[in-house]
Amino acid sequence: MKSTLTILLFASLYSSLKCNNVNPLIKLDLTSNSLNTKLFGNETYAPYGAMSGIASINVPAYSNGNDTYISNQSNYFYGVYTGMKWQCVEYARRWLFVRKGCTFDSVVAATDIWTQISIVQQVVGGKCFTLKKQSDGSKTRPTNESLLIYKLGTDMPYGHVSVIVDVLPNSIRVAEQNYDANYWLGNYSREIPYVLLNGSYYINDSYPIYGWISVEDNNQTYPLNQSTIDKITRQNISFPDFVCSKGVLHYCFSVYCYLLFICFTFGLSSMILRPNHA
Fold first, then answer.
1. More exposed terminus of the chain, fewer Cβ within 10 Å: N or C?
2. Which H or E run includes 2?
3. Residue 147 lies in a domain
4. Which PANTHER family does the entry mention (predicted)?
């Protein structure tokens, strides 16, 4: 009887994954961890490295075991660096890589994404896309496939980042790593309510939020596919050269130098043309 039940559970799980069109590029772990997700929901503790859930068809999240644990282990996906196992930033970067073929530059903490990252870049091709930031309390409703950025807090010394994977009439659903160490209930980690107050949208989370960031790609990005993977392999890309960020810095530095030159020239001209009353 037990063996029959086990076979039925595996058959049911396989059928649900097949119906969801899981990308064959992602090797899913059909182990007892996955069964725990199906049977017990998100109240079951997921040990370090266990797959806690899958979002956006084919982006699995892994448990960090404890939100204070720092593995100091780098993760690479198809040879491309995505971050430290299994931190929230690693998931956000890997989600962007799998779903949009893009990544962003290094940050010390998740909260720094809000203040330091303004551009994402395609891993293959190097095309740059700007990020649009909407502060909590924005007139614009939270948008799907945006990054939700948290501020520093007592329980969040590095802040936090989640990916908005669904927007409902009164709540959002997010995917993430290292918020807690539980298995997900469905294809998202948490559902967070939001309210419309005096024409502004506020997300009602337990922790303070900066806002959400969306990629302005004009439908020019696309999910990771075999062709892109082959190019990554041939070009031996492990971490892109962020020409976009360097271009912005170079532009700002050039403008700064130009203004200094104008001020210096104007000041020097004034000194030369000033009449001598001695």
1. C
2. helix 2-19
3. yes
4. BIFUNCTIONAL GLUTATHIONYLSPERMIDINE SYNTHETASE/AMIDASE-RELATED, BIFUNCTIONAL GLUTATHIONYLSPERMIDINE SYNTHETASE_AMIDASE-RELATED
Contact by Cβ (8 Å): 190, 203: no
- pLDDT at site 35: 40
> Which residues, other chains included, contact 6 with Cβ-Cβ below 8 Å and sequence gap of 6+?
none
SS3 string, 135-164, reads ECCECCCCCCCCEEEECCCCCCCCCEEEEE
Domain enclosing residue 124, as ranges: 2-265
Say if pTM beats, i.e. exceeds, 0.85: no
Write out residues in the chain with pLDDT < 70, as ranges.
Answer: 1-42, 245-278
Q: Are 211 and 149 in contact (CB under 8 A)?
A: yes
Residue 256 tokens read as 């700064």
Contact 91, 177 (CB under 8 A): yes
CATH code at position 256: 3.90.1720.10
Q: Rounded to whole angstroms, how far apart are CA atoms 140 and 178?
A: 28
CB 136 within 8 A of CB 196: no
Q: How many domains does the chain have?
A: 1
